[in-house]
Amino acid sequence: MYAPVFDSARKKLHAVVTRELALRIIAAARRSELITFPKESAVCAELGVSRTVLREAMKVLADKGLVEMRPRTGTKARPRSEWKYLDPDILAWQAELTPDARFLQDLCEVRLGIEPIACAFAAVRATQQELDEIARRLMNREALPQDSAVEIIVDHDLEFLDAVVAASHNPFLMYLNVIIREPFRNTLLYTFHSAATIALALKARRDLFKALHRKDPVSASKAAERAVGIAMLSVEEKIKAQNSPAPLHSQTNS
User: Which of 38, 123, 183, 227 could form a disulfide with 220 if both were Cys (CB 3.0 to 4.6 A apart)?
Assistant: First the structure.
């Protein structure tokens, strides 16, 4: 009678522990470090969990390529190159941390490989009903006040994009769009830092819709490239700003 409640609580604890360990591994990887975990008893004591919960969490991380477990050498983090990078959980965990320049660049490059192709197919395959839905979402985006919160603007932009990708009628592109949607949302939240950037992105979406309406795959692909390019340029600007030395302030001599 009480087993479902117990199982639910255990699964929740297991998910919390898995996430905590994953975030540690990802944060260390950004510092070019590979974690070697201490003995099970030490990790269990630190996290306040049983060995069963810890082992279940480590097994999940091993299946995702984040750790390797060996009987004698213990559990070690694996390099980024061995992660199952498109795993939805790994993408979500990376997006949770402070934006990482390399991750943002990689993500934008993936979008550059998806959006232009999906939009080109949508220009050829979209039904009138799908075009009407795309138009409705664009109108909703255009109707937003200029002082709208960035979160609202980004969500409307992605809803428009979701409809376009769906109109490509390609299940693989639709799947890739879904699994990287949330991390890409965080990228846009990070990069939509000026009215000019937001205006340029909206213009690119308008150009995309016009191309879809004309059934022009070449123009649709180019409009999508511009939209992703805007995000990529914003990422580069953010990176430069972070790496720039702080200005020297003149000191007055007493």
Answer: 123
Q: Are residues 132 and 233 in the same domain?
A: yes
Please indicate, yes or no, whether residues 152 and 122 belong to a single structural domain of this protein. Answer: yes
Kindly report the number of other CB atoms within 10 A of residue 85's CB atom: 15
pLDDT band at 4 (very low <50, low <70, confident <90, very high): very low
Residue 208 lies in a domain: yes
Are 54 and 44 spatial neighbours (Cβ–Cβ below 8 Å)? yes
Query: In what helix (H) or strand (E) does residue 74 lie, and over which residues does it extend?
Result: strand 74-77
Angle, nearest 10°, between helix axes 3-30 and 88-96? Answer: 60
Give the residue from 153, 160, 170, 172 showing the smallest Cα distance to 131: 160
Q: 121 lies in a domain?
A: yes
Q: Same structural domain for residues 65 and 109?
A: no
Q: Given 31, 54, 82, which residue is the final one in a domain?
A: 82
The two tokens of residue 180 are 């990287």
* 164 contacts 119 by C-beta, under 8 angstroms: yes
Confidence tier at 91 by pLDDT (50, 70, 90): confident
Q: Is 67 helix (H, G, I), strand (E, B) or coil?
A: strand
CA torsion sign, 140 to 222 to 165 to 169? positive
